[in-house]
């Protein structure tokens, strides 16, 4: 078991994959409603804090329907006036990728070859060469994956020296009043939205248990550092909404 999760590690990947197959078509709308639109703000901020320069190649791991890819390319277009940067979206789940590919199909980014999709597991990126990307991002993906240490070591391998590791995931809210609000959100509001949008509470409950399995932000920052990345000065992570979401960054040494 992992951090109190109820799924044995050996079957976690398969169980999570089955759930994402079932919810893929309603994933985006469910997330928007569950976070009351905050999802877009967190993702924009996550990309902004990367402060990417023009022309960088990003791999977006567990990229799902391409929400980070879209934010990244939009940032490059508008802030850097750049049309040469690109994103490679990798995800285990073919249904999430199908929805993502469909969303991008008619965009200029797809026409210019600035976005690509591939199925694969973050634990073993067999099709990606060493030192090949400038940025590795993983948003709301790490908590799904049984062996986080393998994910970190693969991220380190595929990043170029000086490349940036960026992870956004659910944190631990510790401010008392926000802790209460968070508890109500997780136990009452979000399950009600899930029942309305995806038609069942059980997948949602399984997903929530998985988010709870994510380590405390302090411990995950240590894991990033143990994997060899240099953490930014300070705690090594940035809380959003008092820790409901946490953005982590680390640099592969030159
Ligand atoms: C909560 S969604 C996040 C999607 C997207 N990154 C976002 O922020 O909206 C989690 C994603 O992780 C993917 N995933 C789960 N296990 C994975 C693995 N071992 N390797 C790659 N992707 C995985 C799921 O298929 C799903 O698309």
What percentage of the residues does DSSP assign to strands (E)? 15-25%
Mean pLDDT: 91
Based on Cα principal axes, name the global outline. globular
Integer tally of domains: 1
What Rg is obtained from the alpha carbons, in whole angstroms?
17 Å
Task: Give the biggest sheet.
Answer: 7 strands, mixed
The CATH superfamily appears as: Vaccinia Virus protein VP39
CATH architecture annotation: 3-Layer(aba) Sandwich
- Annotation field: number of helices: 10
Q: How many beta strands in the DSSP annotation?
A: 7
Distance between the termini: 36 Å
Oligomeric composition of the shown chains:
single chain
Give the class-level CATH name.
Answer: Alpha Beta
How is the CATH topology named?
Rossmann fold
Regions with pLDDT < 50 over 5+ consecutive residues?
A: none
Task: Find the structural class using helix and strand composition.
Answer: alpha/beta
| Strand order in the sheet with the most strands | 3-2-1-4-5-7-6
> What share of residues is helical?
40-55%
The small-molecule ligands in this entry are:
S-adenosylmethionine
């Amino acid at each position: 078991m992992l951090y109190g999760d109820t799924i044995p590690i050996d079957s976690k990947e398969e169980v999570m994959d089955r759930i994402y197959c079932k919810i893929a078509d309603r994933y985006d709308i469910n997330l928007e409603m569950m976070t009351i639109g905050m999802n877009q703000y967190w993702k924009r901020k996550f990309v902004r804090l990367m402060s990417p320069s023009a022309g960088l190649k990003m791999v977006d791991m567990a990229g799902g329907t391409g929400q980070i890819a879209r934010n990244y390319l939009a940032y490059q277009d508008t802030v850097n006036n750049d049309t040469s940067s690109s994103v490679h979206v990798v995800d285990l789940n073919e249904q999430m990728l199908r929805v993502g590919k469909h969303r991008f199909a008619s965009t200029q980014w797809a026409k210019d070859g600035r976005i690509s999709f591939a199925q694969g597991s973050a634990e073993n990126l067999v099709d990606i060469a060493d030192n090949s990307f400038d940025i590795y991002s993983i948003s709301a993906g790490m908590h799904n994956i049984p062996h986080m240490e393998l994910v970190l070591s693969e991220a380190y391998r595929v990043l170029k020296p000086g490349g940036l590791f960026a992870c956004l995931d659910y944190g631990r809210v510790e401010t008392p009043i926000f802790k209460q609000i968070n508890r109500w959100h997780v136990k009452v509001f979000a399950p009600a939205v899930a029942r309305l949008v995806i038609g069942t509470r059980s997948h949602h409950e399984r997903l929530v248990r998985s988010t709870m399995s994510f380590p405390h932000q302090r411990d995950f920052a240590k894991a990033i550092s143990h994997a060899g990345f240099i953490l930014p000065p300070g705690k090594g992570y940035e809380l959003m909404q008092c820790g409901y979401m946490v953005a982590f960054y680390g640099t592969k040494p030159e």
